[in-house]
# Entry
Amino acid sequence: MTQPDMLRLLRDPNLIPPEKQNLLSDLAAQAASLGFSCYLVGGFVRDLLLRRPVKDLDFVVEGDAIKLGRMLVKKFGGKLTPHKKFHTAVWRLPSTFNLHPSFLDLITARKETYAYPGALPTVTPSTIENDLRRRDFTINALAVRLDGDRFGELLDPLNGQGDLEEGIVRVLHPRSFIDDPTRILRALRYEGRYSFDLDSLTSDLINSEALAILSQLSGERLRHELDLIFEEDQFARILLRAGKFGLLKSIHPKMPEFNQDYAGFLEMDNRLDVSADRRVMGYMLWFMNLSEEDVFSISSRLGFTNELTLSVWAAAQLKRSLPHLAGSKPSVWTYALEKLPLLSIYAVYLVSRENALLDYISMWRHVKPHTTGNDLLKRKLTPGPRFGDILSRLRAAWLDGEVQSLAQEKKLLERLLEERGAT
Ligand code: ATP
# Structure
């Protein structure tokens, strides 16, 4: 791509909003005044070349990102959080830039080495060329220069542009997946997102050696990659491919394939006032058919939070108990459901289409008797378990249609109080 073509992309407001373009000019000018070259790299350039709106600004300086950050704060304001060990800084932008998110990562071009396969890398400052060579795939090993006259110059030492045009995901060297097997999940994510293909050597590198290292990775690193997969439109296809390559069983021997029939359920718009979280919903749909023991074992392997574990466990538990609950009265359903997370109930509804679950979500859970605890106090009842009993019997009567008016509720209340008097 020629510099003028790149300039056109960099000035296209449909790809980069004008506020971000202004920020880039300011960054480039300040870096140039310090004698540093600066670049946009990685996903930013990839998406720009694909003519997709860019997301994050992946900004790299050949020089000292912390020094640049200090200068930016002096000139424009905001706040700097330096990370000396990594030669990086986070600049909290002043509100004048009017940008969301209002943080910018300033990164020093670096080289990375791995103490052992799968270890987190050791970082040393280096050139942009080396910085590109430490990356995961050719399509991410691209940079656009920003400073001075070279604004808009594309750096593409590994033919990332060619691979983007051909739709190929290709690692930079044969040890790539051994150094960092999370890249396997990243490769499948790009493949699915852009409908690309893995280069054949790259796919051969997803072998037993790489999978053995993947199986040793921490739950936190694996879950982070899985979380990112659920953000993708094509998440089900990506998980299918992960299963085909044996990744899922390497992570945990009981990890099932993702049921492709459930793929549409993350997209379902949701008019039921159930706040849907794609990630939580994704894990629930994935693990809903597992035994209790396997749910807990996989949750622990992936380092799920207690809340996520509870949601998945509740969905699996509810799915198992559907045959016992089928045909029950609304009050029985409500009693069984009211302690479960709403999203778990919704997930089970999506896969089972059991109407009682929908009735619970949209109506039954809101049903309450008119009588309150205060009313019972006024009737000289002493607070205790019997209080709850009476209120829940009144609620059950409404739910099951035994009571349909305030007068009927009052009548039932009198009867219940008499029963109480009798005991
Ligand atoms: P996405 O659109 O998925 O967010 P991205 O390219 O912005 O894609 P990030 O995870 O934000 O992805 O990473 C930014 C850049 O850092 C990538 O483009 C890639 O060059 C590099 N990178 C990220 N993870 C790795 C990794 N595990 N190994 C090597 N390089 C990586």
Remarks:
- The pocket of adenosine-5'-triphosphate is lined by residues 42-43, 55-56, 58, 135-136, 140, 180, 182-183 (CB under 6 Å).
- The chain has a mean pLDDT of 93.
- The chain has 22 helices and eleven strands.
- The chain has four domains: 1-165, 167-251, 252-366, 373-419.
